[in-house]
Design brief:
The complex is a heterodimer of chains A (356) and B (113). By secondary structure, chain A is mostly helical. Helix content of chain A is 79%, strand content 0%.
Chain lengths: 356, 113
């Protein structure tokens, strides 16, 4: 075998990265182009060519033009998950800002220090960056949106690293409490940012229904901020109603991501398919675990207490128990809705649920 | 996208021809990679800005030629006009500030005090 045919077979192996249908349609043409650009004495494909083809292979499987119907549906699901993830990140940190505003407004704030300034700056960034990333992504500024989403994730990493460094393990009632408080926001941020990077690549189509996403953000962000601020304010004044307002705010934060993802991800996607729904389900546990549990743990209440009943029955943490129960019911309803829609779609159009 | 469309203005070109022409147009600053080129061609084709023109086999290699559509030409013209307007505004403001433009022979326009 001479050098030319060896190189050609290596290029052919490289092209195997591409989806089969695309390779059958474009492979011969791309191989010709690659061989046209070969330098004298070249025996191996250049690394940049391999990286470029690998990138194209990923983009084709996540919604780029030229990919399959299934890949297009997957890309749409990823985009909706990414946008839902950004909203929930912004809401989660907005709820912390709201609590902080409540503490400051009721006069119990001990005063500014370097540490409190740093924390509030980080939380502010973690609120603003996902919100700004969402605005950029739905307005077609994907590159800026991706950068902002990654910056938001980095801020979360820094914030959690600082929390871990300064945490006092004795202050936590259960051994797993520290990890459960720190890991879910990080896991959620990583999953959400991955969805942004995969769903909003340079060859991805624009986000569907941009106005709807902006309206969701515009309504829910101030709502959570105000609810948490009012809850903290009333709580510190010894009012029971503050606890209930806080529980409502937590409920808004907790179930909204999976609910939005299901409502706008599966039911409204152009071509719901089984494995894209599977991806959605993978994201649900992260969302399901993260926010209700963090809410519970922040209030120093264990999951065991909730399940066994004292939290619900004793009256000391009733609002938190109800918050968790309502959250889980909404999650269950969202999952059931997704399963039914997917099943009915598969039954009515089996061809679209098979391999594309 | 802009340079790929520009490369197809005068004649249909195949993939490697587009890469070479874009390299010439950008004076070597941009080297299109295979994944970038075909991702862009897929998008431009789906938007109706570019269309396959013909297939040829040369030295045993398939070469698919692409041409600029009328819609693509109109989009490129609009983009070119927008960029020209932006460049004109920037040039006027730089001249008003007395900044020399690269390639100009008159030194700093208006001089410096």
């Amino acid at each position: 075998m001479n050098t030319s045919s060896t190189l050609e077979s290596r290029y052919q192996r490289l092209l195997m990265l591409l989806p089969t249908a695309y390779r059958e349609r474009r492979g011969e043409e791309m191989l010709g182009m690659l061989l046209d650009g070969v330098a004298d004495g070249q025996r191996w494909p250049r690394a940049v060519e391999g990286a470029s083809l690998a990138g194209l292979a990923v983009r084709l499987r996540t919604g780029a033009a030229g990919g399959s119907v299934r890949a297009s549906a997957f890309g749409e699901i990823l985009q909706r998950l990414a946008l839902a993830g950004l909203i929930i990140q912004a809401l989660y940190y907005a709820s912390i800002l709201g609590e902080f505003a409540g503490v400051v407004s009721n006069g119990t704030f001990p005063g500014w220090s370097g540490e409190s300034l740093l924390i509030i700056s980080l939380v502010g960034g973690e609120t603003v960056l996902p919100a700004a990333a969402l605005v950029c992504l739905v307005r077609g500024r994907s590159r800026t949106g991706r950068v902002l989403a990654v910056l938001g994730m980095l801020l979360t990493c820094v914030n959690l690293a600082l929390s871990l460094a300064s945490a006092d393990p004795v202050a936590f009632i259960f051994p797993a409490e520290l990890a459960l408080t720190l890991v879910p926001p990080l896991a959620f941020s990583l999953v959400g940012t991955a969805a942004v990077l995969l769903g909003f690549h340079r060859d991805a189509p624009g986000a569907a229904e941009p106005g709807r996403w902006l309206r969701i953000l515009a309504v829910s962000l101030p709502l959570v901020l105000v609810c948490m601020g009012v809850a903290e304010f009333l709580d510190d004044r010894g009012s029971n109603s503050g606890l209930w307002v806080g529980a409502v705010a937590h409920m808004i934060v907790s179930p909204i991501a999976p609910a939005v993802a299901v409502m706008f991800g599966v039911s409204r996607a152009a071509r719901p398919v089984v494995w894209s729904t599977g991806l959605l389900f993978l994201s649900v546990p992260v969302m399901a675990v993260a926010f209700p549990l963090v809410g519970l743990l922040i209030d120093h209440m264990s999951l065991a207490n909730l399940v066994l009943g004292p939290g619900l029955l004793s009256g000391s943490q009733t609002e938190v128990a109800w918050e968790a129960i309502v959250t889980q019911l909404i999650l269950a309803a969202a999952c059931w809705s997704a399963i039914r829609r997917n099943a009915s779609f598969t039954l009515s159009a089996p061809g679209l649920a098979g391999p594309a | 996208m802009f340079l790929i469309l520009t490369a197809l203005v005068d004649q249909p070109r195949h993939g490697y021809g587009i890469v070479q022409e874009v390299g010439r147009l950008s004076q070597g600053r941009m080297e299109l990679k295979v994944g970038t080129l075909y991702g862009a061609l897929d998008r431009l084709t789906s938007e109706g800005l570019v269309a396959p023109d013909r297939d040829e086999v040369e030295s045993g290699r398939l070469r698919r030629y692409y041409r600029l559509t009328e819609h693509g030409a109109a989009e490129l013209a609009a983009d070119a006009q927008r960029l020209a307007d932006n460049a004109r505004i920037a040039t006027q403001r730089l001249q008003a500030r007395g900044v020399a433009l690269p390639g100009s022979t008159g030194g700093i326009v208006g001089g410096l005090a």
